[in-house]
Design goal:
Helices cover 35% and strands 20% of the residues. By secondary structure, the chain is of the alpha/beta class. Strand 15, helix 6 and strand 16 form a beta-alpha-beta unit.
Length: 862
Amino acid sequence: LTLPETGGVALQIHLTPPDTHHHRTITIRSHTETGPQRDWILHATGSVAAATAPGSSDERETPVEQWPPVGAEPVEVSNLYDRLIDEGYGYGPVFQGLRSGWRRGNEVFAEVALPEENHTEAGQYGIHPALLDIALHANYLDGTKETEGVQLPFTWSRVRLHRSGAVSLRVRITILGKTEGQRIHISDSNGAPVATAESLITRAMSTEQLSAARRDPHDSLYRLIWKEPNSPKPLSGRSPKDWAMLRIGDPRTADGVHPFLDETQQYPDAEALAEAARIGLAQPPVVVLGLDRFRGTCPVTGARAAVLDLLAALRVLLAEPALGSTRFLVLTRGAVVAGEGEAPDLAQSPVWGLIRSAQSEQPDRFLLVDVDGDGPDLELLGSLFDTLVDSAEPQAAVRKGTVLVPRLVRVRSSAARGESPWSESGTVLITGGTGGLGAAVARHLIRTHGVRHLLLTSRRGPKAEGARELGDELRDLGAEVTIAACDVADREALAELLSHVPSAHPLSAVVHAAGVGDNAVITDLTVEQIEKVFRPKIDAAWNLHELTRDLPLGAFVLFSSSAGLVDGPGQGNYAAANIFLDALAEHRRAGGLAATSLAWGLWGEGRGLVRSLSESDVRRIARWGMRPLTGEHGLALFDTATRLTDATFAPIDLDLAAVRTRQDGVPSVLRELIPRTERPVSAASPTQDLETLLSGRSDQEREKVLLELVCTHVAGVLGHASADAIQPDLAFQDFGFDSLTAVELRNRLRRATGLRLPATLVFDFPRPIALARYLTEELSPGEEDPCEPVLAEMERLEAALLATHGQLEGEDGITRITRKLEAVMRNWRELQSASPPDEGTADLAQATDDELFELLDNELGD
């Protein structure tokens, strides 16, 4: 019996009258709350009899008189539940009750307890179900796994409850053998029997089987919502005077200076800022990249210009080592739909795809914020920046002063109540119609929806590989099919094609499935790659919109990609183009037109972009928690989405167990899908563990530890089970590393070490051994600067003064604080005068302003 990821089940427990031997039969059945009530599934059967007298043969197990047991070796249990998560078990806080454990031969012993807040519930049960489950966790103390998957109780024999109401237990499990299972004796804290089982046999179930059992095929449909974060902070003014400002695509003008930034902090272009950083004149902690110039411009040309100009600036800024610690706040206005009745600015919207991709490549470098017409001025961005960083939110929208963050939520299939948008008599246009996805949709529309007139387009049309065979197949299914060569991005060519749609079967629906990929990380992405991806996506979609918006279409379906929402490293161009499609669907819906944009996850069976992925790429995506969609599953989601009234959906087969245990943490956009209580928080971070491991070791020992760390993460990136497969002196190129695997390794090592590592890490240190030596140097303890703790205290004092200033009433408080500061300065000057001054220090201390300026002119020039 498994519980679905959403909704619930109806449970039926049936007990028969006693037979001639006074035994009763018990059966347990269920059906999902959305399924037909007649379809009861039988899960378990059993036989129940009256309890035998105390001391009978079913109590052969002798209670443990001494505790802990004589000769039993203690077992470490502090990290047990962390380990179990990695093995496929996910126990919430009520179930994390194993307190201590021991082993002795074929026996394991444990002490378990309910959380104190659940003690009052214990009297409601013979034995609290969570406490019984925790008692079986003693099986995990062995620490070895003989089978894949998770072990679940399968057959119980001669189970007896002796007393009820226990809140803590002693557990003794005797391993009888693979076929005999295990004998269980459970007692209370005084050793008195609570429950016994003559035999329990378990069976393994793979995580794939568990996921499949819990999953409704329609439950893989998601949509993006905007909501306040769990711990919202009000926006209050802060003046980040050390920030810098770039207005992308917009030369600096005299009236464009913002009040909290002086003229020197606003740069005309990225090259000027990079040069200032290079010579030490500017090392801003944050650079604001504003895109207001593109607001309201032509959707197609504006979108292209916004992405290209922003990309050009980022490539310059990310390549400058002096800006290695700088973070970039990308600011759009009205680019996303975060509230009711909004329509997105199409020219700015693709920027969100580009930066989301950049965020997955370089975590913690980018924040993405969209504001409305009444959104915060730049002086409030400092407060907003702190709010997002504190809550680990990389993206946000501000609407009427309220901060909102994006979350994917599941769409209930029961919400699909609209009429079918497909007409049997009308013509359906499918772009990319001879490709894998387009062909699958064509077959589906004929077989499932009775569509009889299809117009399939591609660049090569009838000359495309397999096009003739596809046409014959679709005609055999009973449809009239036209396969035409047409560049849909060419407006005139598309208009000519549409003019030949017969009036007897007018155009009734559009499915835009065309698209190409050309991957590169953000620092390598070229103008040519942007154009290659944008043309069949953005230009074609806009042409389809403009040339059909006066037609009464039943459906206008755009095939987008989940890369624009989450996990799109190396796909900045593709993510940007597909976010434009999502925005176009919102734009059409706001104007009362039919539109559905589907941000597809990974397709299997050789469809979609999976054809261009390597086996290691597919494994990496699986580790992120995305399973390939089967054709049947994907098309079922297609049907559900096209009957709903929302504009955008994300059909993704998410493996939430894999998402929950991601090495890089749960992406913020998926947090609504992962219960926060399921993963316990470790006491120490990976960097703290590493510091402890390196402490007190010689340089040679530290290098050995770090080499093992590097090889472990190289193995993880490549999908190997252990670091044993990694040769330390072999080049990363020989392992098959590319730009994406290099990015993943850099990010893994950054999280493990706490170092800010360069984007070119794998290319600068092309072998694991060389990389380990570099990390050894970077992590070697240096001499502590005695000024640092004093300066840190001064910074805290400055922050306290700024925070207190606005709360002081009258002159008394200000005077008291001022006197104290003056006293501190007097004491400091007296200490300095009592110490032998460095050469030149005394002269400088006594110098007049004019003398100081003269000295500076001599040193630095006029």
